[in-house]
Design brief:
The complex is a heterodimer of chains A (about 120) and B (about 325).
Chain A (H helix, E strand, L loop, with lengths): L1 H6 L1 E8 L7 E8 L2 H12 L7 E6 L8 H5 L18 H7 L7 H5 L7
Antiparallel strand pairs in A: 1-2, 1-3
Chain B lengths: L8 H13 L12 H26 L8 H29 L6 H10 L15 H20 L7 H29 L3 H20 L14 H6 L7 H18 L10 E3 L4 E3 L5 H7 L7 H14 L1 H9 L3
Antiparallel strand pairs in B: 1-2
Classes of the chains: A alpha+beta (about 120), B mainly alpha (about 325).
Protein name (chain A): Phenylacetic acid degradation B
InterPro entries (chain A): PaaB, PaaB_sf
GO cellular component, one term (chain B): cytosol
């Protein structure tokens, strides 16, 4: 078994469904090298779903967070100034000036045709 | 940071159980009690190897499938099962890390008889209807147990099951399609399904395992429930299986090969003839009708393909 202890390497597989979608982690697999990992990724995880691109990453190159580090990710619930939630009062203000608030839906629609 | 307090195992365990109770997911690198790790390894390695061993009785039907489209259908199912095996072995390997064991060791455990494969895959398939019954009812049974673990406390297993269950839906319908064609076919074809159902009925009951550990002396079900890997008992699963499939079996004009089976309105439970649990005990010791033949097939293939592993390992720099 000694030879096999070093034979396989662990690869993490990422893929995206369409050209516009973001890469998403799929799963991990064992392969002897990158090229095999890429083939295995397709065979293992993309037998049906549409796929536009695949990345494989050797697990040893992934910097992971440990349990202690993950604790630092918890957010304090005092960041309203960063969120539209903190500016919700504007809707009422604008109504006073007989104008509609330019909310997220409205602003993100500006890339489209002029209405 | 200076540690002002050394965390004891009891505290780690309490914290671990709190996380599980809160519905948090445990990941491969997280601290976990030995009992949890061992329970997961036993469960998932057996599940993984069973996917691979389960592909063997099905692959026997690839050359014998009655049409090209049936051949393609069953071939893709066999490929899925091998894929599921890959996923689950991967999950097991990460759990085995502290013990320095890997996939090759799991394969040896299988050959030695230390790692069991699911009791349903020790049985013989005789006709094309058996392939249909496997797809329809064995996969149906598997879906009942697997969907119950979609929210398992162990994250990697839950995520593997998400992928697996999505494909199982195809498998179930693939089996239904084979059965439906036979059920709407000639009298001979109808008789074929009835015979296959008679042959597989006891195996379908055994599929979920005995109701309590009294039957075989041990059972994983208490531990898997304690650690929120699953929520239902073997008997719960069997009852769900009856609920879902008995009406469908009867609707196709088939007879359940158990004249005593009935639904008790008061308890809302099915009463039925128990399978031969002595036979079950033999099967899980690899003494079932096809246990040795399937193990030999796996072993031969593993040995025959050793040159591929040797060739690929030689390229590692």
């Amino acid at each position: 078994m000694a030879g096999e202890k070093t034979f396989y390497q662990e690869y993490e597989v990422f893929s995206k469904r369409t050209q516009n979608s973001a890469f998403q982690h799929q799963f991990s697999l064992l392969a002897p090298n990158e090229d095999m990992a890429l083939i295995m990724a397709q065979e293992n995880f993309m037998r049906r779903e549409p796929v536009a691109d695949i990345w494989i990453v050797n697990r040893r190159d992934v910097r992971k967070m440990d349990r202690e580090e993950k604790k630092t990710l918890a957010r304090l619930d005092n960041k309203e100034y960063r969120l539209t939630k903190g500016y919700g009062y504007l809707k009422k203000k604008w109504r006073h000036y007989e104008q509609q608030v330019l909310d997220e839906k409205e602003i993100l629609s500006w890339g489209g045709d002029r209405k | 940071m200076t540690p002002i307090h050394t965390v004891t195992d009891d505290e780690l365990l309490a914290n671990f159980m709190e996380r599980i109770e809160a519905g948090e997911k445990i990941e491969a690198d997280d601290w976990m009690p030995e009992e949890y790790r061992v329970t997961l390894i036993k469960l998932i390695s057996m599940h993984g190897i069973s996917e691979i061993m389960g592909a063997l009785p099905e692959k026997e039907w690839v050359p014998r499938a009655p049409s090209l489209s049936r051949k393609l259908g069953i071939m893709s199912k066999v490929q899925d099962e091998m894929g599921h095996g890959q996923l689950l072995l991967r999950v097991t390997e990460d759990l085995l890390l502290p013990y320095g064991k890997n996939r090759g060791d799991l394969m040896q455990d299988l050959f030695k008889g230390d790692l069991k494969f699911h009791n349903v895959f020790h049985m013989e398939t005789k006709t094309w209807a058996d392939a249909g019954i496997i797809g329809w009812l064995v996969d149906g049974a598997a879906i009942i147990t697997q969907t119950n673990m979609l929210k398992a406390s162990y994250g990697p297993y839950a995520r593997a099951l998400q992928r697996i269950c999505a494909e199982e839906v195809f498998h179930a319908q693939h089996g239904e399609s084979i059965i439906m064609a036979l059920a709407e076919g000639t009298d001979e074809q109808k008789a074929m399904i009835q015979e296959a159902l008679n042959r597989w009925w006891e195996s379908l009951l055994m599929f979920f395992g005995p109701a309590s550990k009294e039957t075989t002396g041990s059972s994983k079900q208490d531990l898997t429930i304690k650690y929120k890997i699953r929520t239902k008992t073997n008997e719960d699963f069997r009852q769900i299986f009856f609920d879902k499939y008995i009406p469908r079996i009867l609707a196709l004009g088939l007879t359940i090969p158990d004249p005593t089976i009935r639904f008790d309105e008061e308890s809302r439970l099915w009463t039925y003839q128990q399978p031969d649990w002595e036979e079950f005990k033999k099967i899980i010791k690899n003494k079932g009708p096809r246990s040795q033949a399937r193990l030999n097939l796996r072993k031969t293939s593993y040995e025959y393909n050793a040159w591929v592993r040797d060739a690929l390992s030689a390229t590692v720099t």
